Amino acid sequence: MKAEIISIGRELLMGETVDTNASFLAKQMPLLGIDLVWVSQVGDVQSQIVEVLQRAWGRSDLILTTGGLGPTGDDLTRESVAELMKEEMVLVPELEAALRQRFLSFGMQQMPETNLKQCMVIPHAKAIPNAQGTAPGWWIESEGRILVCMPGPPREMMYVWENEVRERLQGRSGRVIMARTWKTSGYSEAAVGEMSFPLFPNDNPSLGVYAKPDGIHLQLKVTADAASEARRMLSEGEAKIIRAFGNTIWGTDDDTLEMAVGKLLITSGKTLGVIEDYTGGYLTTNLTAVPDSQIFFTCGAVVKTDKAKIALGVPASSVAKGPVSAEVAVAMAEAARERFAADVGIGVTGMGAGQTNGTVHYAICDGNIREAMVRPRSKERLATTILFELRKLLLG
Fold it and tell me: Which secondary structure element, helix H or strand E, spans residue 372, and what is its range?
């Protein structure tokens, strides 16, 4: 079964709203054995919506739309689908009564008459209940195709999907699709491609290689007639990838780098303390979000002044030479280790007075010292760099 997602709304094209609906639905497709092939965005112009729908109707077995089901004049999904199907919309008394009762439950005695358009359907459409909002969805089956229209607000869309739509689609595809992602460090995107694509020369399993802020990701997708066969194919593919990349694989699927580092710290029985300036608490926030972080994380401090650094144990003589230096970063890492009773300390300092080009120094101390100077593009990128270096240290 080939699927297509159409996100409807001018705000998406203007960049005012991020299309989280399409991302959410895309992740749901493999779980149902459905092959997502196209994703489109279109504004609130009926002729354009109809054009996109006609194209989808000609090439997809399942079409999912989000947005355009509101009561205002620019909510045109119903009208566009009616034009696609060449059918007239009619008011459904049961939907009207339910909607008027809903407005009463809001404490509103009068429902705006414009909301009546949300109570209309075409002959081919069945209304999909929406307990989270005023806009019912539409379910249409015709000519061997399924068209599902869902509301645009993410909370409503996810509720409708999880409580009304997903179960109706379960088992429709007759195929099982499974996917897994492996996350690597230490190689460029091109190098990962050269190492991995020869391992999977055919379309099934199919491989994708993606450059991400936390390294290069490999995603393997398999399609089979049964779940047991899909799991076997995925397991065989995993063995090939692990043989090729070894310890450069730091996580899979939803793993984060801080989760991977946290597991290594717990496994090794080591604890961590952090004193950070430039990163402004980014390291501490991410590491303490890891489950069971209390096992490995002793303390984190954000310091922005020379006095604060000195108060935590950084020698005043080092700070006097310049607060942004390798010497200060090392002293901060040693202070984090000693003051916070940790096995490993991290110190980060940067962007001080007189510094140019965004110079940042960081150090990791576990008795020995690892230190580096970098010019990161962002705090997030620097934090990722530091966590990769910490991972290398923990792996020996």
Answer: strand 369-374
| 322 and 355, same domain (yes or no) | yes
Using CA atoms, how far residue 287 sits from 41, 200, 214, 263, 389, in Å, is: 36, 36, 15, 11, 15
378 is written with which tokens? 């962002």
The model's pTM is 0.69
- The CATH number that applies at residue 242 is 3.30.70.2860
One-letter amino acid identity for 206? S
CB-based contact 148:125 (threshold 8 Å)? no
Task: Give 247-304 pLDDT, tens digit per residue.
Answer: 899 999 989 999 999 999 999 999 999 999 988 899 999 999 999 999 999 999 999 8
In degrees, rounded to 5, the angle at the alpha carbon of residue 31 between the alpha carbons of residues 28 and 35 is 80
Domain final position from 105, 140, 169: 169
Residues 273 and 364 in one domain: yes
Number of Cβ within 10 Å of residue 14's Cβ equals: 9
